Amino acid sequence: MDLYKALQIGDWNAAKEFLNRHQHAISAKITVTEKTALHVAAEAGHVHVVEELVKQMSEENLEIKDFEGFTALARATFNGNYRMAECMLGKNENLISIPNNQGNIPVVLALFNGHLKLARDLYLLTPLEILKPENGTMGATVVCEAIYNKALDIALDLVKRCPRLVVAQGISGDSPLYALACMPDYFLSGNRLVFWKRWIYSGIHIQLGGPINDIHLNIQKLVGNRSRSNGKEIIGSVAVVVADVVEIEWV
């Protein structure tokens, strides 16, 4: 059995036998789209095969990209496979910062495809430095995708840590300020609520406990409380930060 077929069907014994005979194949690009064995196994969804391949690969081999600039981690993230992502990052944490050809890093791919649990974990591992607006479009892109995909806890945490991201442009050209404007359902003015919901909404007060740079959100705690919140508190805080930054920009 050839290597590609063994990986596609998840036959690790056959794949291992092939790799023992052709050791260079562990890092070779074995498809016309320049995928390695790890890419193929990740896309096929075979976690046990991915785990075995990672054991045999060097850290550098994990960074190999296919023709679209996707590492195997990016492919696993695109499909929302938490165990694969955990396995690869356990061996090479630098994978978290490697963009594809479009400039999207793993946390953005997870957000874009609606894999919010995975996105939150990837966000916590992503270095803040690469998300700062002076270092490119990655940070604004993360905030925009978080807003579009209702991962508001991520958006709030990042704009509090890097306030000027709200007026920075992401990869698509959108800014977080624009993204908020495109989501009227987040705001009372964009919804027709029954009386009791309007009454509850009017009772919500957002208090920022100190300077923006001193505030750090406990994402895990917030995620745990999502079932008890409709998100108005979170987006309200984002809006407060947006308003502050816009005022600064115009002064």
From TrEMBL:
ANK repeat placement: 33-65
Keyword presence, DNA damage: no
Pfam families reported for this sequence: Ank_2 (PF12796)
InterPro entries: Ankyrin_rpt, Ankyrin_rpt-contain_sf
Swiss-Prot/TrEMBL keywords: ANK repeat
This protein's name: Ankyrin repeat-containing protein
